[in-house]
Amino acid sequence: MQDQSARARKNLKYLTLLAREYPNIAAASSEIINLQAILKLPKGTEHFMSDLHGEAEAFTHIVNNASGVIKEKVDRVLGPGVPDQERAEFATLIYYPAQKLDELKERQTDLNGWYRQTLYRLIDVCRVVSSKHTRSFVRKRLPKNYAYILDELLHAHFEDHDKEFYYDQILSSIIDVGRADDFIEAMCVLIKNLAVFKLHIVGDIFDRGPRPDQIMEQLLNHHSVDIQWGNHDVVWMGAAAGSPICIATVLRTSLAYNNLEALEDGYGINLRPLALFAESEYRDCDMHHFYPRTDEARGPYHRSELIRTARMHKAIAIIMFKLECQVIDRNPDFELEGRDFLRHINYREGTVEVEGKCYPLRDDDFPTVNPADPARLTRQEKEVMEALQRSFMESERLQRHVRFLFSKGGVYHIENGNLLFHGAVPLTESGSFAVETFEQHGYAGRALMDYCDERARRGYFAPEGSAERQSGADFLWYLWCGKLSPLYGRDKMTTFERLFVEDPATHTETKNPYYRHVNDSKMARAILAEFGLDQTHSHIVNGHVPVRAANGETPVKGEGRLIVIDGGFCRAYHEKTGIAGYTLVYNSRGMSLRQHQPFESAEKAIRENLDIASTVEVFETCEKRTLVGDTDNGRRLAADVEDLKLLVQAYQMGLVKEKT
């Protein structure tokens, strides 16, 4: 008791502030009871996804069906007595209520009866997915217009015959006043929100696929999400900060994959200056090696459009290589000497030196390059880049999305015993943590990851025009392609070689030794220890390198300590991996991997009630069910309980005065 009294006196300033929220013993005691009850609930379900690469339709579907969890709940609630087709239709209604309602209504002979049955079924499913949550948690997520009604229905006891008529009248009133459609849509949204407690995105939202902006918009509206930056994300973050090298890199990748929709329609980036420049300067060039990759499912493509895109691709690629020379000059710490390829070209002979060996160029037409000063932008190139820079920095939607990436994201994240990062913790060949020197200091392991996070933020938040802003923006580009970038994890990015050198030996990008060593559980445990995590029960979760499931590769490595969840979400990887991504699901009973098959289109899914075919592999179960009290958040709540108990003690001692 004396210890409690001393603690209360020592923390009197803090307790006085806490008393503003809990002004008397009754209020503090009520919150203690509430928090202690929460600690005994099963932990919420966490979903981990990575390498979305702009595949918005597939991402939307997986979020809508909660990686198959909602279909499992539907099957459980409706039971085998309801035909498979009817259960599939009902699940599709939950995924896409606005699109599915009209089709289902048209087939009904008794519409009011169908409404009533559908509403009762939705209530039952909603009860199941809300069972892990407190009533307070659920209430906060109820749609505003129907909060009171839904709260009543979700916590109704239908076996209470005295109230059965009351609840039936609520549903009848919803139907009678013509609000059934709106109410069904609201319930479907609520079910989807409650099915997943926390969403972890382990990097690479951008590039390759057509609409990363739509994915970002969904993440912005998700109730609980964190993001571990991928190298494709940070280069967009640098572009939003106005970095010319990041802008050129983003444009080159988008043009290479013929993905202009996100740039122009999603973010309002004006590509006209680049298009006019490319038509003027590259009109007579051979564009054979710059034709964009095309996806037949997203075609058809007109030849004239592809030629125009190819010219823009080459124009921005040359600008990018010039800017790379300048960034390499400014940053000797990056150790990218020799990667300034425009300076290693023999323009008379049509050859280039790559790592000490001379190769013929398969394209030696450089109309805007001055061999005497190859890194210098022409006047027209400067004007193009200035216009593009303004467009990127003035895109309100892009800036909103990038600020979200900074606020919800980082190089790594630790939660509930899991270490999440996109690429790698750089290692040496012998398996020790690789040391990288930046700004005259050496960094390795966790310290390197922390440094990368801090310097990346300078590139966006430091004052415009400052040396810190320039340094941070250059570093965002380094994180995209640098040899010891934890987000990239390879020794080099061979964009120049792939475009200009025929010999495939020059195209090789050697993975960091991390990707060999983590198959050894000892190294996985050493990384977990470096980040202060338990080596027996914790996990590393990362993406970046697609798991070739078609060749029998498993995503679970290092005796279960490491899970790689890049299964080829992007269409461009489907042929290599044989699947279309993974979702790692961590609930109160353990961990499981859900392996997804390719998704054709939302339109077909709605029309034919098709789901993404997924297989579930449970690879780790808990000896006892994990409760909220066992989680990181639970430990924070338990600390809050102790603070509130101390506040009650202060009230009882008269150190803090109660307010009525």
Polypeptide structure, described:
The chain is α/β, with parallel strands linked by helices and 660 residues long. It has 28 helices and 17 strands. It has a seven-stranded mixed beta sheet. Strands 8-9-12-14-13 form a five-stranded mixed beta sheet. Strand 2 (198-201), helix 13 and strand 3 form a beta-alpha-beta unit. Helix 5 (69-78) packs across helix 8, helix 17 (272-281) packs across helix 18 and helix 21 crosses helix 22.
Rg estimate, integer Å: 28 Å
What's the rounded overall pLDDT mean? Answer: 88
Please summarize the sheet with the most strands. 7 strands, mixed
Structural class: alpha/beta
Count of extended strands = 17
Read across the widest sheet, the strand sequence of neighbours is 7-3-2-1-15-16-17
> What is the helix fraction of residues, given as a range?
40-55%
The parts where pLDDT drops under 50 for at least 5 residues are none
Give the helix tally.
28
Summary keywords:
660 residues, seven-stranded mixed beta sheet, 17 strands
Strand and helix map with partners:
Elements: H1 2-10, H2 12-18, H3 25-39, E1 46-49, H4 56-64, H5 69-78, H6 84-95, H7 97-106, H8 111-129, H9 135-140, H10 147-154, H11 161-176, H12 180-195, E2 198-201, H13 212-220, E3 225-228, H14 231-240, H15 244-256, H16 261-266, H17 272-281, H18 303-330, E4 345-346, E5 351-354, E6 357-360, H19 379-393, H20 396-408, E7 409-410, E8 412-415, E9 418-421, E10 436-438, E11 441-443, H21 445-461, H22 467-481, H23 495-500, H24 514-517, H25 521-530, E12 539-542, E13 556-557, E14 562-564, H26 574-577, E15 582-587, E16 590-596, H27 602-608, E17 614-621, H28 632-653
Parallel strand pairs: 1-2, 2-3, 3-7, 9-12, 12-14
Antiparallel strand pairs: 1-15, 4-5, 5-6, 8-9, 10-11, 13-14, 15-16, 16-17
Helix pairs in contact: 1-28, 2-28, 3-28, 5-6, 5-8, 6-7, 8-12, 13-20, 14-15, 14-20, 14-22, 15-18, 17-18, 21-22
